[in-house]
């Protein structure tokens, strides 16, 4: 689904690169974790995969097409759902309105379908009352669920999450990772998660480690099932 | 959920901030509206002045030509006396040809002439009653009527000033409010050919005269005719205002000694030569702005070497000059407030965008088009603007009225002081407009009432009628839209430059 071809990134000095000539493939229906020390470029890598930034060299292909060719904004709108570490919900809206906004912007097939959005929120444990409350009145855990629900309701086949379990206790962290795996396995989405949490990462189908400017498979992805 | 709904949700959720934004915008719109109202009211006042503040044309003897002729005669005599030393030169006199009423009637038929009033001035002696005597050389000057066309005093003047008119209502001294009928009635066109008169209150009191009484007037003795006595009937008594004071020359008659008669009787007192003539005829032009074209047409009907026809649209010009300064001030208010408002709103929008960069970042990360994000901000400000326009429309009338009073008072003080300066310097000239603005100064032959008339006209315009119309609100909306468009454009740079990664990732 998503491939990188000779992907390189540096800030100011080409020789002082974060990673160089990366060739990776991410398939649908599999959850991937990218782990590594702070400052190794995990977040930069995920921002490139999510179409939030442009590579310095090389290209990213989505279903064989360069994502820059069709426009990063268009790529984000139709093909990627992003879950941010800080949730980044619209604070002047309710949980339900946050989801409805995402459905509208991404031109989802469920655009305008309140029932679908409510079902998704309900699935993630929010009551009807909580769905209609301003998101600022929800707890941190509930807000995180709303952020994940926002990514789930969209039709995007690629879900990218930056430290989704950051600051969460183990139980909640497990719950969140389970949700992402559910997205990959039940909805057939390609889920890429950046995390510090080694235990959480281990729950993913594949784990990539970024260390000393090198990216290595710590846990090889399973062979994707052949589709007729 | 489209950007319009997001805009609404944002405004509703942040009520306090929205209310503040509405108040700031309403304050800006209030002053823009006040400026627009003032401007519109000043334009209306000028338009009204065209119909309500009359302009006049005055047909009178051509003094300039008469003086020129006199000078030529003097030069001829001087040459003759040089060649023939035995000839004793006689000083030539200034011969003013009286206006023929037939000429006046021709002009009156021109389109654009609304009405006309004939004015004949002469003097007579009181017979059987006493004229009011002024003990000092200084006396109260009458606002109009008394010395029309004379430009000075005759050596052989009687103790009563006779002012012959077509009707008292049409005479400047009555139309501008200097004189008012207190008892009986004024003279009308029906009195032409009669011996009905209107006398002043003080003269009537001194001689125990009342409406219906008769008095005797004696014409002045001339070389050709002896003095003749006429019994006239008092049909009305008028009160002359004594507010207008000025130095009058020695020998001047007290204003209370002015008796208004029909011009035909005034001509009778003058003598047989004066029959069907007038000192001057004042034509009221229906549309002051067309006074020049009417004057041009009238000139073709008269012998310009003997007569002159001068326009006097000073009242109109004075109102126009006054309102012009109001318009100019209003324009400045509108533009200054609009520019200041744009800057203020632009800064608010820039701050608003900075404050909401995370929200914008999320929208961009979701794939929202930057244009739609800008449109969301525009919609938010549009709602704010519409509410602000509603509020400012409610308060604009009040502010416009207050501002209008101040500005008009200031403009009138300025114009009146300028015009008074012009009056003093110009003598017989009408008040000039604002100095340095080239406003025309119409000639007012011997009629000092013009100044009072102008002031009366100014007083009519003293209160600007500031009324909010749909047009004003429409114009205000256009201004408001332009302001928020510029403000949004200025703030949009922040949205266009914003990189979602920088805002969202790792925050």
TrEMBL record, chain A:
Keywords: ATP-binding, Nucleotide-binding, Transport. SMART domains: AAA (SM00382). Residues 2-227 form the ABC transporter domain. Belongs to the ABC transporter superfamily. GO terms for molecular function: ATP binding. Gene3D superfamilies: P-loop containing nucleotide triphosphate hydrolases. Pfam families: ABC_tran. It comes from the Bacteria. This is ABC transporter ATP-binding protein. SUPFAM superfamilies: P-loop containing nucleoside triphosphate hydrolases. InterPro entries: AAA+_ATPase, ABC_transporter-like_ATP-bd, ABC_transporter-like_CS, ABC_transpr_LolD-like, MacB-like_ATP-bd, P-loop_NTPase.
TrEMBL record, chain B:
InterPro entries: ABC3_permease_C (IPR003838), MacB_PCD (IPR025857), Macrolide_Exporter_MacB (IPR050250). Keywords: Cell membrane, Membrane, Transmembrane, Transmembrane helix. Residues 71-98, 413-456 are annotated as: Disordered. Pfam families: FtsX, MacB_PCD. It is a multi-pass membrane protein. Residues 333-408 form the ABC3 transporter permease C-terminal domain. Residues 57-300 form the MacB-like periplasmic core domain. Residues 86-96 have a biased composition (Polar residues). It is found in: Cell membrane. The chain crosses the membrane at residues 333-353, 373-394, 473-496. PANTHER family: ABC TRANSPORTER PERMEASE PROTEIN, MEMBRANE COMPONENT OF TRANSPORTER-RELATED. This is FtsX-like permease family protein. The lineage of its organism: Bacteria, Bacillati, Bacillota, Bacilli, Lactobacillales.
């Amino acid at each position: 689904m998503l491939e990188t071809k000779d992907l390189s990134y540096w800030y100011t000095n080409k020789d002082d690169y974060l990673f160089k000539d990366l060739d990776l493939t991410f398939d649908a229906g599999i959850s991937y974790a990218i782990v590594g020390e702070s400052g190794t470029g995990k977040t930069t890598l995920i921002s490139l995969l999510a179409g939030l930034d442009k590579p310095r060299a090389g290209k990213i292909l989505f279903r064989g097409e360069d994502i820059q060719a069709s426009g990063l904004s268009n790529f984000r709108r139709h093909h990627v759902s992003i879950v941010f570490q800080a949730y980044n919900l619209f604070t002047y809206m309710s949980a339900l309105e946050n989801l409805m906004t995402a459905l509208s912007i991404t031109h989802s097939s469920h655009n305008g379908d309140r029932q679908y959005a409510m079902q998704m929120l309900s699935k993630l444990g929010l009551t009807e009352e909580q769905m209609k409350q301003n998101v600022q009145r929800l707890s941190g855990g509930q807000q995180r669920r709303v952020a994940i629900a926002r990514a789930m309701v969209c039709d995007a086949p690629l879900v990218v999450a930056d430290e989704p379990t950051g600051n969460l206790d183990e139980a909640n962290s497990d719950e969140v990772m389970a949700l992402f795996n559910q997205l990959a396995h039940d909805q057939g989405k390609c889920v890429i998660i950046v995390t510090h949490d080694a235990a959480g990462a281990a729950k993913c189908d594949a784990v990539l480690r970024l260390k000393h400017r090198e990216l290595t498979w710590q846990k090889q992805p399973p062979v994707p099932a052949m589709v007729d | 959920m489209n950007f319009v709904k997001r805009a609404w949700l944002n405004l509703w959720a942040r009520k306090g901030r929205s209310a503040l934004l509405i108040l700031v915008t309403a304050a800006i719109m209030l002053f823009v509206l006040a400026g627009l109202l003032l401007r519109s009211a000043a334009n209306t006042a000028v338009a009204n002045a065209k119909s309500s503040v009359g302009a006049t044309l005055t047909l009178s003897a051509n003094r300039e030509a008469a003086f020129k002729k006199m000078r030529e005669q003097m030069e001829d005599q001087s040459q003759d006396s040089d060649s023939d030393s035995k000839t004793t030169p006689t000083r030539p006199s200034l011969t003013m040809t009286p206006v023929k009423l037939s000429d006046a009637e021709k002009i009156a038929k021109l389109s654009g002439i609304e009405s006309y009033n004939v004015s004949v001035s002469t003097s007579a002696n009181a017979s059987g009653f006493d004229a009011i005597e002024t003990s000092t050389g200084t006396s109260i000057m009458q606002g109009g009527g008394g010395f029309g066309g004379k430009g000075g005093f005759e050596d052989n003047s009687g103790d009563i000033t006779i002012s012959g008119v077509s009707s008292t209502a049409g005479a400047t001294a009555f139309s501008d409010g200097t004189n008012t009928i207190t008892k009986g009635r004024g003279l009308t066109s029906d009195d032409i050919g009669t011996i009905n008169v209107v006398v002043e209150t003080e003269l009537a009191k001194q001689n125990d005269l009342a409406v219906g009484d008769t008095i005797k007037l004696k014409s002045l003795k001339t070389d050709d005719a002896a003095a003749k006595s006429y019994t006239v009937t008092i049909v009305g008594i008028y009160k002359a205002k004594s507010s207008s004071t000025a130095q009058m020359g020695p020998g001047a008659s007290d204003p209370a000694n002015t008796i208004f008669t029909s011009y035909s009787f005034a001509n009778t007192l003058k003598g047989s030569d004066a029959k069907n003539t007038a000192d001057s005829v004042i034509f009221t032009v229906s549309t002051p702005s067309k006074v020049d074209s009417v004057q041009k047409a009238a000139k073709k009907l008269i012998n310009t070497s003997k007569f002159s026809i001068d326009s006097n649209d000073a009242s109109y010009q004075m109102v126009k000059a006054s309102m012009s300064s109001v318009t100019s001030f209003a324009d400045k208010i509108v533009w200054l407030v609009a520019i200041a408002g744009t800057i203020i709103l632009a800064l608010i929008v820039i701050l608003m965008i900075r404050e909401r960069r995370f929200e914008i970042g999320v929208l961009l990360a979701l794939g929202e088009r930057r244009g739609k994000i800008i449109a969301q901000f525009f919609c938010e400000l549009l709602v704010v603007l519409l509410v602000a326009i509603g509020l400012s429309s409610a308060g604009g009338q009040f502010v416009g009225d207050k501002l209008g009073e101040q500005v008009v008072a200031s403009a009138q003080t300025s114009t009146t002081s300028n015009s008074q300066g012009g009056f003093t310097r110009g003598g017989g000239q009408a008040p000039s407009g604002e100095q340095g603005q080239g406003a025309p100064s119409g000639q007012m032959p011997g009629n000092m009432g013009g100044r009072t008339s102008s002031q009366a006209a100014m007083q009519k315009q003293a209160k600007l009628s500031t009324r909010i119309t749909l047009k004003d609100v429409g114009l205000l909306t256009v201004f408001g839209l332009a302001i928020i468009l510029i403000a949004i454009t200025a703030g949009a740079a922040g949205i266009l430059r914003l990189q979602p990664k920088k805002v969202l990732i790792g925050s």
